[in-house]
Automatic annotation (TrEMBL):
Keywords: Cell membrane, Membrane, Transmembrane, Transmembrane helix. It is found in: Cell membrane; Membrane. The chain crosses the membrane at residues 12-30, 42-75, 87-104, 110-131, 138-157, 177-210, 217-236, 251-270, 277-294, 300-319. It is a multi-pass membrane protein. It comes from the Bacteria. Pfam families: TauE. This is Probable membrane transporter protein. Belongs to the 4-toluene sulfonate uptake permease (TSUP) (TC 2.A.102) family. It comes from Pseudomarimonas salicorniae.
Length: 358
């Protein structure tokens, strides 16, 4: 039976049209904002987001994982600017990657993703209004550092195990809906609204630890929730609370990089593998933790250092509990499936040997 060699390219047509539209609009915006001189002034963030966009498309950690520490720690910009920039740049890079994922028809954990989007739609604006204004800039930096370091340690310890899981997990509709909504609401309210990132990593943790999801399904699912949350966050901030000065200029410089960089991450990771990519990003997460503590030493001192390390430990104890809970339920599901498989032929044999047999 002949195959249509052009079918894969046709599936990518919506993504290609999105890129065409984006670059046309971006070109007009750059021309109005100052042209090449503005881009040259912000070349550093554009260069950094080349790596950030790859991270966004190939791992459960948004492009803000790189953009936030580069702006805040290296360029000494306010933490609030780093948060708003994360929302802005991910609304291009991760949306672009999401469109590509949908065009390629990659499997997703919709049972958890849909409720998580609903929770984020409620939690992120509420967090921007009522939680983020209460968090001092130093705490934003430390919260970012602690959460990312915790995920770095988790992946340094368990990446090989995570990469060994293959195929879709058994459905648990009520559980998935409850966890997804809880993650979207809680992480949107307390994490994404404060740092501009993080909801993707928390949903990913729920998928791989509680549900034993395949990384090839969990990571694209995390990309979509971060893309959705970033759009919600930047639209709400731009229309209601306002965006930090400097975000727009940095966004103009970085946006054309991430528009293709995040989708390329989706492709490249299939060539070099998820395991080395996750190890590399895990090391970056731990390194930025050490970098943050060093930069803020004058303000935090020994008490702050001990509190930050203790927080990483608490997060990883929570991850361990989630892992054990998920392993126990996965074992129960495997046992139940094995018993069902065993009992079906047995029941058939009993039926065939009854008084009416033959």
């Amino acid at each position: 039976m002949p195959t249509d060699r052009h079918a894969p390219l046709r599936r990518l047509l919506p993504w290609l049209l999105w890129l065409l539209l984006f670059y046309a609009v971006w070109g007009v915006l750059v021309d109005r904002a100052g042209g090449l001189a503005l881009l040259a002034e912000h070349w550093g963030i554009a260069l950094a987001m080349g790596l950030g966009s790859y991270v966004a498309g190939s791992t459960p950690m948004g492009g803000g994982t790189v953009g936030f520490p580069i702006l805040v720690l290296l360029f000494d910009q306010p933490a609030e600017l780093g948060r708003d920039f994360s929302f802005a740049v991910q609304s291009i890079g991760m949306v672009s990657a999401s469109i590509l994922i949908l065009c390629r028809r990659q499997p997703l954990e919709w049972a958890m993703l849909g409720p998580a989007m609903l929770g984020s739609l409620i939690g992120t604006p509420l967090g921007i209004l009522f939680v983020a204004p209460l968090v001092p800039a130093l705490w934003i930096k430390l919260l970012f550092a602690v959460i990312w370091a915790s995920f770095g340690v988790l992946h340094l310890l368990r990446t090989r195990e995570f990469c060994s899981v293959h195929g879709p997990s058994a459905p648990m509709p009520r559980f998935d809906a409850a966890v997804g909504f809880g993650v979207g609401l809680g992480a949107g309210l307390c994490v994404a609204s404060v740092t501009g990132v993080g909801i993707d990593m928390i949903l990913y943790a729920a998928l791989i630890l509680l549900r034993r999801a395949d990384l090839r399904i969990a990571i694209p699912t995390s990309v979509l929730i971060m893309a959705f949350t970033s759009v919600v966050g930047i639209l709400f901030k731009s229309q209601v609370t306002g965006v930090q000065p400097g975000v727009y200029e940095n966004w103009l410089a970085a946006a054309p990089i991430v528009a293709v960089g995040a989708p390329l991450g989706v492709f490249i990771v299939n060539r070099i593998g998820r395991q080395p990519t996750l190890y590399f990003v895990a090391v970056l997460c731990v390194a930025q933790f050490a970098w943050t503590l060093w930069r803020e030493w004058a303000l935090i001192g020994v008490p702050g250092l001990l509190a930050a390390i203790a927080s990483v430990l608490v997060f990883n104890l929570a991850f361990e509990w989630m892992h054990r809970w998920g392993e126990g339920h996965a074992g129960n599901r495997r046992t139940e499936a094995a018993l069902n498989t065993y009992s079906m032929p047995a029941a058939g044999a009993a039926h065939s040997s009854g008084p009416n047999a033959g």
